[in-house]
Design goal:
Chain lengths: 150, 405
């Protein structure tokens, strides 16, 4: 059970039950859809970017606890961050969930998002955790394509 | 007397542990585990008898050929076809459906013709027809689902029109477990001279099949879903229909004479088996069918039905659990959702308890759409599962609820 507790930490369960920034943004500069065809996870991401800073970010959709909480924590984490930093965080986060070694410094940058380290023990769930981040990168590229993790 | 403990000993993988716990394998609808006899048959072929078939005049080639062809005979007997030439070896159900779509229906299909399938079909019995319909400007029509997971066969008479060129339906749903009344479907279609393809991917391992009694025109199944190897399956078609069909793929073994001007095709079923086939697969599948016959498919059916009733009773007591698919006539498949918990989380937690279940849409997205859910957790039982395992599964579902709060 210890790996499971590691995966389903309280903060993850909390964000699954009560996702933050769970709404559409009428005013937005960037938008993308994400879809994981294998499990049916779907999410829609909205960003309002001004002067290369994420002023507002939100999402709607449905998915498992890992994908919902990941999207929720991501939106919380990225509000106020620059686009350049965001791209760096994407790399860190990706390394974190796929089990690559991160330096203490890099881990510190991720802050609360470090709770997703448990995902690396569950290869089948990596795509759940990273769906919102892939969708984010698509949104920033301003492509209107649906991001897919399959 | 059906002795499940004795049967379990025939399956080496069931003796193993997963995540430090005894394996509870309940994903047999996706693929079944293999008995030692099947594993041994493949090793024995490669150790003692192997060569390419239908070619050599030497001993090994003839031995291989004899084993391969007697496998065809075994398939013929298992589904009670009239003649072994009505059995075409294919890669699996998917290829069987594609073969019928390309070699039977495509030359006959015209603009605005109709292909009738059902709302509960596996993607493999949707896409080949959809692709063909798009190529030819034909239409795909659908027998709708009822809330309990049965097909709404009251709609069948109006769906079978003068434009309907084929009916393709599953005998048993892989996501709902529903066993369809294919006798009625075949009878009504035949009244209007419409041929019928039965997808037997699920039914083959759970009930006796008699294609002559059913009078279906095509029947397809996969070896790996009936305790045999993957990459092999069989297409049954009535001989006169096979004769009328155009070749599927071109290549060696499907010809009698080749020149650059003209090729004369081999007789059925070889006309549809281009290239060196899956020799060990066919032989392994036949050994699997013999293994099942020895236990008796009716005995298997009875045992699994008992297991199914027990499971429904146990899981039915879990608060917040809703069954998806509650038809009166079902094979040993249970799909369910838990209030507020996504099936993917259910699957991961159950796996940590040693329980291998399938979560997702089970290649039946229209079914998920019908019930307005993204996915289900599916427990599919085989005759090697036990009531003790059902208790363990029920306990693991309770653990899911506990952990996810």
């Amino acid at each position: 059970m210890s790996e499971l507790r590691e995966l389903y930490q309280e903060v993850i369960l909390d964000h699954n039950k009560n996702p933050r920034n769970f709404k559409k943004l009428d005013e937005h500069s960037h938008h993308a859809n994400g879809h994981n065809p294998l499990c049916g996870d779907k999410l829609e991401l909205f960003l309002e970017v001004e002067d290369d800073i994420i002023k507002e970010i939100s999402f709607v959709g449905s998915g498992c606890a890992i994908s919902t909480s990941s999207a929720s924590l991501m939106t919380q984490f990225l509000k106020g961050k620059s686009i350049e930093d965001t791209k760096q965080y994407f790399e860190y986060f990706h390394d974190l969930v796929t089990g690559k070694q991160l330096s203490d410094d890099e881990l510190e940058h991720l802050g609360k998002l470090a709770v997703f380290a448990g995902v690396q023990e569950f290869p089948a769930r990596v795509k759940c955790a990273s769906l919102s981040w892939h969708t984010l990168m698509n949104a920033l590229d301003s492509t209107e394509q649906t991001a897919a993790t399959e | 007397m059906f002795d499940v403990q004795k049967i379990r000993k025939d399956f080496p993988i069931l003796q193993h542990e997963v995540q430090g716990k005894p394996l509870v394998y309940v994903d047999s609808a996706a693929s079944t585990q293999k008995p030692q006899a099947v594993i041994d048959s493949i090793s024995e072929l490669y150790s003692k008898h192997y060569a390419n078939i239908h070619r050599g005049v030497y001993y090994l080639s003839q031995k291989s050929t004899a084993l391969y062809e007697s496998s065809r005979e075994t398939v013929k007997n298992f589904i009670n076809a009239r003649d072994a030439k009505e059995i075409v070896f294919v890669r699996g159900t998917t290829e069987g459906v594609n073969l019928v779509a390309s070699s039977f229906l495509e030359p006959l299909l015209e603009v605005d013709d109709e292909i009738l399938i059902s709302e509960m079909e596996h993607h493999s019995n949707i896409i080949p027809w959809q692709l063909l319909a798009e190529r030819k400007g034909a239409k795909l029509r659908i027998i709708p689902l009822l809330e309990n997971g049965d097909l709404d066969l009251a709609k069948l008479p109006e769906l079978l029109t003068s434009k309907t060129m084929i009916v393709a339906v599953t005998q048993m749903s892989n996501s709902l477990g529903t066993i369809n009344d294919i006798a009625t479907i075949i009878e009504q279609a035949h009244d209007k001279d419409i041929p019928v393809l039965i997808d037997g991917a699920q039914s083959i391992a759970h009930m006796p099949i008699d294609v002559q009694e059913l009078d279906c025109d095509f029947f397809v199944f996969s070896g790996h879903k009936i305790y045999g190897p993957s990459g092999i399956g069989a297409l049954y078609a009535k001989a006169e229909i096979l004769e009328s069909m155009v070749p599927y793929q071109g290549g060696g073994d499907m010809i009698l004479n080749v020149s650059f001007e003209k090729t004369e095709y081999n007789e059925i079923p070889y006309k549809f088996e281009a290239g060196t086939p899956n020799i060990s697969g066919a032989i392994g599948m036949a050994v699997a069918l013999d293994y099942v016959s020895e236990i008796g498919i009716s005995n298997i059916d009875r045992y699994e039905q008992d297991l199914l009733s027990y499971a429904v009773e146990q899981f039915g007591q879990i608060e917040g659990l809703r069954f998806i698919g509650t038809a009166a006539l079902k094979g040993s498949i249970i799909s369910f959702v838990l209030d507020g918990i996504h099936p993917h989380d259910v699957g991961t937690i159950m796996d940590m308890e040693g329980v291998s279940v399938r979560t997702g849409h089970h290649c039946t997205q229209p079914v998920m759409e019908f019930y307005n859910i993204p996915a289900t957790t599916r427990i599919s039982l085989a005759f090697y599962n036990t009531k003790a395992e059902i208790d363990q599964i029920a306990a693991s579902i309770k653990k899911v609820k506990e952990l996810m709060g």
